[in-house]
Amino acid sequence: MPRDALSPLAQGPTPAVSGDALRVDGDAVVYRLFDVGYEISLDRVLELLATEAPERVRPVHGEAQALQIPNPPITVILGCDDVVLGRERLTVEVSARIFDFGVVSMRARVPAPPGISWNGFIDFGEMLDSASVIPQLLDNRLGHLVNRLEECIKRPAIAEQTEDYIVYRVARLTDLQGQPALPSLLHDTLLSPLLLNDRRTLSVEAMRELLPHRFSYTSEDLAILTWDNALIVDPSPVDTDVQFILEFANAQLLELRFYDATLDAELPRMYDRIEAVRPGVRGLLSRRYAPLLAQLQRTVADSTELVERVENALKVTDDVYLARIYAAALELFRGRAWRAGIDRKLAIIRETYSMLNDEQQSARSEALEVAIVLLIVLELLLALFRH
């Protein structure tokens, strides 16, 4: 059956299995995304990072053809670091994915102890979610990477906004006898402590509201999305298409949040600048509006261009499996709401620009009318003196 015929997985009744009766081989990928500038030249990045063998990665499966990426991001392995997580010393692989619209996604792959129980995997996730050592590691690595890439970045500046996300990946799920177990055994009471970080027994209504985005293609795979994290059960270690889509959606979310905050800060400054200019504007002096108008025009142009570039960085051309996951991620991350907020603020700036421009043109017209009247009066006076 083709994937475009699938719908999100319905959670049917499954046998009650305890978390100690399942064994997990898997890991977690901690994402921390940063806005580092207005635009990044990916071709130049490939040249600078040539010794690290950077790759331009895109989804590889057949259904991924429905996703068009005009300028695929660059992925580079940055090395490994040893970190202490709880009482365990773990080797963490650090990598980065670089997007042309100014986002760098730092990633840390943290292995879970092999053969850990599902309850132990929940403890692993809880410890990872609360640990500060991984974000600090990624922050430090980002600083070194941005320094190396500074010449590739247009208007380099690391923004305050960041986006954090964790993907828990299960490569093998087995029972106590070591036999493969289906992901359908992962019922809500096992999922909520890991994905919602809540060990209480939640109601059916709460589960339906908090864990609505479930997808599956075969009986052996499962993808569940939430706002802060996701669970991917997939026996194929090379199939990272769902992770790619989620990372892309998080990068787009970060840019929308960044420009929303930028415009939030711009509006009060705009009003202050208008008040500072307006008292001194009289007649021909109305040209003092010109720098402000030019600045408003640049703000609108830059914001509109960047947001359009972000939204067009990945296009869905057909309703298939990965496309549905991508659409669900955008819905979950409230992409439309962020875009609507940006559009409202841009509309305010455009209206302000139009108002100031009209006021400036009106002032010029008044000045011209006064000049014409003065010339007429002068001409009449000269005619009187001649007589």
Overview of this protein structure:
This protein is an alpha+beta fold. It has two domains: 21-249, no CATH class; 252-386. Helices cover 45% and strands 21% of the residues. The protein is built from nine helices and 14 strands. Strands 1, 3, 5, 6, 7, 8, 10, 11, 12 and 13 form a ten-stranded mixed beta sheet that branches. Strands 2-9 form a two-stranded antiparallel sheet. A hairpin with a 3-residue loop joins β12 (222-225) and β13. Mean pLDDT is 85; it is low at 1-14 and 281-285.
Short précis:
This protein has 387 residues and is of the alpha+beta class.
> How do the helices and strands follow one another from N- to C-terminus?
EEHEEEEEEHHEEHHEEEHHEHH
Task: Report the radius of gyration as a whole number of Å.
Answer: 28 Å
Number of distinct helices: 9
- Please tally the β strands and state the result: 14
Please give the largest β-sheet.
10 strands, mixed
Which runs of at least 5 residues are low in confidence (pLDDT < 50)? 1-14, 281-285
**Average pLDDT level:** 85
Distance between the termini: 103 Å
Shape: elongated
Beta-strand share of residues: 15-25%
Estimate nothing, just give the exact number of structural domains. Answer: 2
Counting helices, strands and paired strands, the structural category is alpha+beta
Q: Helical proportion? A: 40-55%
